[in-house]
Structures are given as structure tokens and as C-alpha cells.
Write a structure and sequence with these properties.
single chain; 226 residues; 5 strands; globular
Length: 226
């Protein structure tokens, strides 16, 4: 039986103790390997090109180039497949939402436990959304506060989806897992996975998190009250 290669992680944080602490925690996991550290956003962008990590743990506030712009440069169409996991001190920090817009795949509190950190890396590396239902609800509320009522759906992209794919997109945005979606729609989980893959391809999105952001920014899903 062939063993899957470890998940390659780059840690970007201007605090040495944070970088070293996360490195020790993650390297203790048999399926995760920290391949490098970056001291600021510019360093992170350069290291992604040099080392090709699977996941980047990205602090938001760093000198030279902040985590949001660094995330945008890493996730824009440049051939990089690295997924960005934003590190933050406050789970309702408005910068987190800007980072998600920039292309981040999720966010994690810096005081997360070793188990939560490792789980987050695995989830993001697999292309899943690191957004629990309670976080998703607050996320939608915050987007509404920052940008006003959601815009009407962008027909040029949404129109490419089938009715079932639109339904699945809506459920993704509500924070449901593939298993939960499959149960609700009474279909096989593999069928849901197929729908998700097609949604991402048709909309030109990187992962489930970006699909969720797209869904409520374009009005496919609307917060209560809108």
C-alpha cells in the first residue's frame, strides 16, 4: 500500500516564537511536514514560488507586505496550487473577511490547540472549507455589514450551473459537509462530491470556501432580513 506524501506547509508570521511553535506542533504529525518559514508577506510569496507548499499558514498583520495582499498574490492565477489558512487573534476580525475575499481557504485562531491546528491544515489541504456553521453565519452577517445587501446574482457565472448544482452551492454556503448535503438531498456522498467539483470548475473557484463567499456575495444565498 502506497503511503500518501505528507502535506507540505509554509508558516508565514513575523513573530519567531509563533513560527517555531507551529513548526514543532505540525512536525509532530506523521502526515504533515513544515518545509519553510516566512517572516513577512513578501517573503511568503517568494517562498511559495520556491518551495511549492500545499498549505500556507498566513498571519494577517506583517511588515513589508500584509497577509491579505500576500494571499491575493499567492492565490491569483499564477500556477500556484497552495491554499492559504489565515491566522488571526480574533475570529471576528474584519481583516479575516478581506482575506477570504483575497482567496484564503479558511481561518484559524492563533490560540487553537495542536489538534485543531493539524485538523485545519488537513481540511484546507483537501480543498474543504474550514468554516463551521456558526462561523459561516457570522461570516455572512459581517459581509452584509461591510458591503451592504448582497448584489443580485452575477448571471454570467451562475447561469452555467444546473438547478441541482445551485442547490448544492447554497448548502455549501450554509456550512454543510458533503455527508450532510448527501443526507439532506437523499443522494450518495460521491454524487455530492461530483456536483461540488463541477461547481468549482464552472465558477472558476479554488475551493469550497471561495464557493461559499461567491454564493452570498452574488445573492445565491441571502442573510435573513435581506
Amino acid at each position: 500500500m502506497t503511503t500518501a506524501p505528507p502535506i507540505r506547509v509554509l508558516i508565514a508570521d513575523d513573530q519567531m516564537m509563533v513560527r517555531q511553535g507551529f513548526t514543532v506542533l505540525l512536525n509532530a504529525e506523521p502526515d504533515i511536514e513544515v518545509i519553510g518559514q516566512a517572516v513577512d508577506g513578501l517573503d511568503a510569496v517568494a517562498k511559495v514560488t520556491e518551495l511549492a507548499p500545499d498549505v500556507v499558514l498566513m498571519d494577517i498583520r506583517m511588515p513589508e507586505l500584509g497577509g491579505i495582499e500576500a494571499t491575493r498574490r499567492i492565490t491569483r492565477p499564477t500556477g500556484s496550487t497552495a491554499r492559504v489558512l489565515v491566522l488571526t487573534t480574533f475570529d471576528l476580525d474584519e481583516y479575516v473577511y478581506e482575506a477570504l475575499r483575497a482567496g484564503a481557504s479558511g481561518f484559524l485562531l492563533k490560540e487553537a490547540s495542536a489538534a485543531e491546528l493539524a485538523h485545519a491544515v488537513r481540511v484546507v489541504a483537501a480543498g474543504d472549507a474550514l468554516l463551521a456553521p456558526n462561523i459561516t453565519k457570522r461570516l455572512i452577517t459581517e459581509f452584509s455589514r461591510l458591503t451592504g445587501a448582497p448584489r443580485a446574482p452575477f448571471k454570467g457565472r451562475v447561469a452555467h450551473l444546473t438547478e441541482r448544482e445551485t442547490e448544492v452551492l447554497s448548502l455549501i454556503a450554509q456550512g454543510l459537509s458533503n455527508a450532510e448535503i448527501a443526507k439532506g438531498l437523499v443522494v450518495a456522498e460521491q454524487t455530492v462530491k461530483t456536483h461540488v467539483s463541477r461547481i468549482l470548475v464552472k465558477l472558476g473557484l479554488r475551493d469550497r470556501t471561495q464557493a461559499a463567499v461567491f454564493a452570498y456575495e452574488t445573492g445565491v444565498v441571502r442573510p435573513v432580513g435581506y
